[in-house]
Write a structure and sequence with these properties.
- The complex is a heterodimer of chains A (114) and B (110).
- Helix content of chain A is 0%, strand content 55%.
- In chain A, strands 2, 4, 5, 6, 9, 10 and 11 form a 7-stranded mixed beta sheet that branches. In chain A, strands 1-3-8-7 form a 4-stranded antiparallel beta sheet, with no helix packed on it.
- With 110 residues, chain B is mainly beta.
- The chains are: A mainly beta (114), B mainly beta (110).
Chain lengths: 114, 110
């Protein structure tokens, strides 16, 4: 299994540009999430999904859209990039078993907005 | 108040030391608790889940106190390779989402 893959690894955008960060998992996990991590801080949840066709907002959803048309894919769209969106973005997938959960993260996308 | 709060650190300890990290959470309905490890510029990886009865994995011991809404991680006999940021994570039942603390940075020195 490839696990959780993210593309691109690095991206530079100009203010106002839009783009999509790709995330895919091949573990058939129900749950997928997008986080951003700013320097010296923990991960903040942007959007998450509990299954195909179901998404919900996290802590910091403004400026981002998501969709979950398949179990495998969970793209994150930046509608109009702003310098405040400069961050490292992590996608994660997870499953629960017997009340326990294991969350697997992709390697991250480093985004710089000028 | 943040939902999950951790010792700000950083912790700088010599090899062989015992170090403890603390974490508190605000939502009493939280059901699942975890410690993740994150190396510099890498993705977080699950270190261990935290169970009510406490659990141990080698040199690592995790404790949960639901009454005080407090989680701890104890690392015994610290190794250089333990240097990382440790993230406390809390999850509500059937919520599909996790809340992360800001992390505590540990540096183990020779």
């Amino acid at each position: 299994n490839a696990g959780v893959t993210q593309t691109p690894k690095f991206q530079v955008l100009k203010t106002g540009q839009s783009m999509t960060l790709q995330c895919a998992q091949d573990m058939n996990h129900e749950y997928m999430s997008w986080y951003r991590q700013d320097p010296g801080m923990g991960l903040r949840l942007i959007h998450y999904s509990v299954g195909a066709g179901i998404t919900d907002q996290g802590e910091v959803p403004n400026g981002y859209n998501v969709s979950r048309s398949t179990t495998e894919d969970f793209p994150l769209r930046l509608l109009s990039a702003a310098p405040s969106q400069t961050s490292v973005y992590f996608c994660a997938s997870s499953y629960t078993s017997g009340g326990a959960e294991t969350q697997y993260f992709g390697p991250g996308t480093r985004l710089l907005v000028l | 108040r943040k939902e999950v709060e951790q010792d700000p650190g950083p912790f700088n300890v010599p090899e062989g030391a015992t170090v403890a990290f603390n974490c508190t959470y605000s939502n009493s309905a939280s059901q699942s608790f975890f410690w993740y490890r994150q190396d510099c510029r890498k993705e977080p990886k699950l270190l261990m889940s935290v169970y009510s009865s406490g659990n141990e994995d080698g040199r690592f011991t995790a404790q949960l106190n639901r009454a005080s809404q407090y989680i701890s991680l104890l690392i015994r006999d610290s190794k250089l390779s333990d240097s990382a940021t440790y993230l406390c994570v809390v999850r509500l039942p059937n919520a599909g989402k996790s809340t992360f603390g800001d992390g505590t940075t540990l540096t183990v020195k020779p």
